[in-house]
Design a protein that fits this description.
Elements: E1 16-27, E2 30-41, E3 45-49, H1 56-63, E4 71-76, E5 79-80, H2 85-91, E6 92-95, H3 107-117, H4 122-135, H5 151-163, E7 169-173, H6 181-196, E8 200-205, H7 208-214, E9 217-222, E10 225-230, H8 232-236, E11 243-247, H9 251-260, E12 265-267, E13 272-276, H10 281-294, E14 300-304, H11 308-316
Helix pairs in contact: 3-4, 3-5, 4-5, 5-6
Length: 326
């Protein structure tokens, strides 16, 4: 990886929904979390990316009090995770990649059962159930067994059940795994609505487009360490490889351009040149101005900038450095 340095996460006094320092977890001689630090502002979407086995689900389980950490400190919703886990549980909701919906009872009965678990009165439970079923477009299916629901409907019901307790922080552990593209996009809409209501969303995902679309900040977890953190755009700037590609149909124009642009990479078969570029408007304009001044006309100009796929593979592949980038 290049030596670019990631700007640190903002610590400008914005209240943290989740913060951790040196969080550690091991199973036997395998270290799953190796001292991770997080600062997630309230009312934002934070995405934790990483390959299978990187420790994403372990982090969620610790922060939602399902398992305990071996070391480090954490606060969730202003409560110390170790000292006051009950207060943490009261403030959060958790939806995993495997639905907690009971398929043998109806969607409405699932919701009412959750209302009972939150000790809501019968009338309050029915009111909240009706509101959430309508919000998640499940009213027509409310009286049907949840086993008859599609994958997307079950996932929406799962989140609706999570919201019965009015949590201010929701952990979504790979919430769109197994969903078709349409259902995945519908789920993105649900998540955006949650944030508009002021809910903080902690999202783990293997879908890089999902993180790009939803997250205010993204951390990449690899071998138990946070190897990079920032906005999607900040992370993309970590990875080299941005370029402008010029393609010509006239061999003479191609040769003239190749001679003048000594640093360009040639593709003689395609009559194409590749120029390093950071993707800025200034650089793109400079290329166009140069072509005009030289009287050379390219038949096609395309711009490639690194995406989160490039970032992910660069940071989690076998050749990545072990140095944390922030």
């Amino acid at each position: 990886m290049p030596s670019s340095v990631m700007p640190t996460s903002s610590r400008n006094g914005s209240p943290a929904a989740v913060s951790t320092t040196g969080l550690r977890k091991s199973y036997g001689d395998k270290t799953v979390l190796d001292g991770i630090d997080l600062h997630i502002p309230a009312g934002s979407v934070f995405a934790l990316l990483g390959p299978n086995g990187a420790g994403k689900t372990t982090a969620v389980k610790i922060l939602s009090t399902l398992i305990s950490a071996d070391g480090g400190q954490a606060q969730v919703a202003g409560h110390d995770l170790a000292a006051d886990p009950q207060a943490v549980r009261a403030a959060i909701g958790v939806t995993g990649q495997f639905s907690a919906v009971d398929g043998l009872i109806t969607g409405e009965e699932n919701m009412l059962l959750m209302a009972d678990l939150h000790h809501l009165s019968r009338s309050e439970g029915r009111r909240v159930t009706a509101e959430l079923l309508e919000r998640f477009d499940l009213t027509e299916a409310a009286k049907k067994p949840a086993a008859t629901y599609s994958g997307g409907m079950k996932r929406r019901l799962d989140i609706a059940m999570t919201l019965v307790g009015s949590p201010r922080i929701i952990f979504l552990d790979e919430p769109t795994t197994g969903l078709d593209p349409r259902s995945r996009h519908n789920m993105w809409g649900v998540i955006r609505e949650l944030v508009l209501d002021g809910v903080t969303v902690f999202l783990t995902t293997q879908y890089l487009e999902e993180a790009d679309q939803l997250a205010d900040r993204i951390a990449v977890l690899n071998d138990g360490k946070i190897v990079a953190e920032g906005s999607a755009e900040e992370l993309k700037r970590l990875v080299p490889g941005g370029h402008v590609r010029l393609r010509f149909s006239d061999p003479a124009s191609y040769e003239s351009a190749a001679t003048a642009l000594g640093e360009a990479t040639r593709d003689d078969e395609a009559l194409a040149l590749q120029l390093p570029s950071d993707g800025s408007q200034r650089e793109l304009r400079a290329v166009l101005d140069w072509l005009d001044a030289a009287g050379i006309e390219a038949d096609e100009l395309t711009l490639h900038t690194p995406d989160l796929d490039d970032v992910f593979f660069a940071l989690t592949g076998p050749d990545q450095t072990k140095e944390t980038v922030r």
